Amino acid sequence: MRAAVAEAPGPLRAACRRLARIIAILLASVVLMPLQWLVMRFTRGPNAFVVPRWWFGCLRRAMGIQVEMIGTPRTGGGTLLVGNHLSHYDIVVLGSLLPARFIAKDQMQGWPGMKFVGELAQTLYISRRQRDAAAVAAQLGAQLRGDHDLVLFPEGTTSSGERVAPFKSSLFALFLQRPAGAPGWTLQPFTQQLLSVDGVALDAGGDRAAYAFHGAMRAGPHVKHFLGLSGARVRVTFHPPVTIGDGVDRKALALRLHAIVAGALPTHAEPVGA
Question: How many other CB atoms are there within 10 angstroms of residue 220's CB atom?
Fold first, then answer.
């Protein structure tokens, strides 16, 4: 039996679909962004994550991204959610599921509109350069709040999603340190798995590169192409939380978390270092 492969949309159909989605995204943004700006004039606590979650949910549905969720994310503050990074769409997917702040690389602030959006979502932008490690630790330490949950992509970059790259352990150091008597952070690994694109399962010939963003791809053409498709289906698996005990080595922790995240993919390789 021949595997069913979806026909590529014609140029007119793709253009109409793209236009409709852009209009839907703009309408959601026009309504919800001013509301979030107003909310943040009064609070930066848990209530400031309600509107961003609505906004990301509207974006996800407008883009045709369906999510299959396995497990339960831990929320309520003090949780660092750690997982693999497939695409710029990860923020939309996870933002629609989690009332949490994202830790993102500072280069993203140069993307059109990202600095403003990041401020409304309370994103923590950090430098990945080794020479900035001390400043990054100080910056994060000053902004961390126990009533917030955080999302970290410790691979440091996006990938095709077929495997999980080694986790960079340097950022875990901050979450292993705590003042005497202060509650510790709980880590919860999660795995994102791309299942289908444009109605075609990956194992039946679905175009992984239409969703996953990696290598020398350019963001503009990548987004334009995806918005002309019918969408994608993604599975997000939330694994059981991991409590951090005293004296835990950050490199050993990174390897342990990597094994959990990578183990949920059909194919994965062991990391060569962290």
Answer: 9
